[in-house]
Amino acid sequence: MSQLVARILLTIFMLPAATVVYIFTFVFNDRLGVGNREMIDFLISGATAWGFVIIYWLLLWRKGVQWNSTRALLTLLSALAAIGIGALLGFFAEEVVRFSTGSFGAFLGTMAAPISWLILTVIVWRETPAERRQRIRAANGSAIICPNCGYNLTGLNGTRCPECGSQFTLDELIASQPKAMDQEIEAGS
Predict the structure, then answer these.
(1) For residue 39, what are the contacts with CB-CB under 8 A and spacing of at least 6?
(2) How far apart are CA 58 and CA 11, in angstroms?
(3) 182 phi, psi to nearest 5 deg
(4) In 2-65, which ranges are continuous DSSP H helix?
(5) pTM of the full predicted structure?
(6) How far apart are CA 44 and CA 49, in angstroms?
(7) Which residues, other chains included, contact 154 with Cβ-Cβ below 8 Å and sequence gap of 6+?
(8) Helix 103-125 to helix 3-32 angle, to the nearest 10 degrees?
(9) How far apart, in Å, are the Cα atoms of 112 and each of 2, 99, 121, 183?
(10) CA 23 – CA 116 distance, rounded (Å)
(11) Which of 52, 60, 55, 54 is closest to 24 using CA atoms?
(12) Per-residue pLDDT tens for 65-99?
């Protein structure tokens, strides 16, 4: 099994595992009487499950992300945005349902925050076209890359990119390759 397949499978199992952590923490808090109200139990359980999700997600995908200061900052801001999303969703759900204890809003908000964070981190961590070109070049130094989307065109018998549909002439493809200038200079010397 490849590492990517293993990561994808482990990602699939993360939310069920987080659900077990959430339920265990809720029952544990309820039995110990840590929270004097159900809402407090939901908040503690949600924070614990989210902590589990953060650690699990970062350990699982940290090597697959090209970290820089912008991505690190956006990851932190994603957490703050997710807290805001969870709080707003919890507040509005509580207003609609009108439970007097606030427990439904706390439950829904603590479920929405980690899921929102996961969605936001996927957006923040996705590979840029420049990073994709760099990765493909490192794997195969002679790769021909689509100038529009970064798709590896090596091995195709046409100049239309199957990923984005752009059509190029051979001259356009060769001229757009990052190492094309170096090769032209070497050939001319």
Answers:
(1) 101, 102, 103, 105, 106
(2) 11
(3) -60, -40
(4) 3-32, 38-61
(5) 0.72
(6) 9
(7) 140, 142, 143, 144
(8) 160
(9) 31, 18, 14, 52
(10) 20
(11) 52
(12) 999 999 999 999 999 999 999 999 999 988 888 76
Cα angle, residue 130 at apex, residues 126 and 134 outer, rounded to 5°: 100
Kindly state the tokens that stand for 146: 């689509």
Q: Give the amino acid at 158.
A: G
Partnered with residue 160 across adjacent β-strands are 167
C-alpha span between 17 and 183 (Å, rounded) = 52
Q: What is the DSSP string of 61-94?
A: HGGGS---HHHHHHHHHHHHHHHHHHHHHHHHHH
Neighbours of 153 (CB within 10 A): 18
Q: How do residues 90-138 score in pLDDT, each as one tens digit?
A: 999 888 887 667 788 889 999 999 999 999 999 999 988 888 777 766 7
Length of the chain: 189
CA–CA dist 151, 163 (Å, integer) = 6
Q: Tell me how far apart the alpha carbons of residues 9 and 16 are, in angstroms, rounded to a whole number.
A: 12
